[in-house]
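Incident log, entry 3
Record: Long-chain fatty acid--CoA ligase (533 residues)
Problem: checksum mismatch between cached and fresh output.
Input:
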Amino acid sequence: MKQLWLQSYPENIPHEVVIEDKTMVDVLYEAVSQNPDQLALVEGNRQLTYAQLRDRVHQLANAMSKMGLQKGDRVAFMMGNSLEYVISYYAVLACGGTIVQNNPTYTKRELYNQVNDAQATMIIIDENLGSQFPDILEETSIKVIWYASSDEVQETSLRKVFDSEALNFTPVPLNANEDVAVLQYTGGTTGVSKGVMLTHRNIYANVVQTHAFLGVYAKEGQERLLNVLPLFHVYGMTVSMNYMIYLQSTMHLVSKFNSSETLALLDQHRITMFPGTPTIYVAVNHNEKVKEYDISSIHTCISGSAPLPVEVKNQFEALTGAKIVDAYGLSEASPVTHSNPINGIRKPGSMGLPIPSTACKIVSIADGKTILPIHEPGELLIKGPQVMKGYWNMPEETENALKDGWLHTGDVAYMDEDGYFFIVSRKKEVIIAGGYNIYPREIEEVIFNHPAVREVVAIGIPHSYRGETVKVFVVAKDGHEIQEDEIIQFCHGKLAKFKLPTEVEIRDELPKTAVGKILRRKLVEEELKKVSN
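Fresh output:
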């Protein structure tokens, strides 16, 4: 497949980028060297300059090293957005450790499964979450608990660390190409949760690529980015946190998105960059007081995690004068692989062009090899420096996903005559609600434990705000009756809130193939017909 997309690149966008032998720790030190007094992080009335951020990173790195953290050890994160999250991220990398990012809304079952799979030896957790997992030391591989935010000055509270530890630390030497920086758990290309191994080079490369393609209006040391994206998500990690360190600019952190508070911050701090998801832009557009704020300082918005409706883009751009682009990525690619150009043609419904140093092709779903012509849908394959090393302790899954250096995404897409790519369907079973991936199998496993359930299948159905929401179809065992509310209640405490089913339908039977496999796609089609009618 010819790289037709290069003909659609704006003139000042490079086709390839040079990826130096650096890590994000090196990038932080460069920012400190060149802009030590520049504000790096702002959270409410708390803030850190780049020099202060480095000092905090060194203090925590010293403390963790004393408690036994060695190169290659995994450290779990269970935190919301905060100064401590960024400090912890860079401290673990400076120690040569590997970060295991967890959603802070996870239940005990979800967290313990992930931590044990990663064999993490330490966890950094918000104090208000710690009480939910009193037996974590007994039931997981965790040996040391660090409390990110704590009023009590205890041995492993970051507050004590910042009061007492030395400011000098020598980072552990790293092999950027081989050493794993982050284990990002995802459903991968098969729907089974697994740890994506992202090397230091993967992460650094994706920041460089993102800047080359989308940083057209960005100026080093001068940007003010408002981050409402969760930093535990690979999207927020790259396009907000790491990108701002790379730009030696300021990131304003919000722990929980609220459209009114967001508008006030956009106005007050004259924010210039505002990455988000379609649901975030919808909420801002529809805030009844949106016109009372001056948000014209924004020049760049990157929208990811779900397709961006044209009317949402147009309305937001009319309010701000900013450029907002629809982008595409996946955890296995750190995550950005495609975007519409910020200073070029932005095609409605398209995920855009491959970013610099990214190769793509569309191949036959039947054989996974035959390259298809333009406009013909097939599986999207990607190659580039941002593509993962593989899946943690899953050689067979890694072999299936990575063949001859090409990442098989499992997404069905096509390319048009200008080199723009369009997703036809997402990974076969993944539900994308509010930008989060939800895997039906996990929901089904929980509901199968209900004593009256014989069969269950979960699907995503359209939702005006979240993009999709979860609906489950249930068949009761003979002689049993089940109420819809009973199923939803049964899931509480076993699944994070964003995974909970919002609709339940009780059926006598489910559609199946001749060999007894439930026809999930048929149920999806039935729901889509309801919407179209």
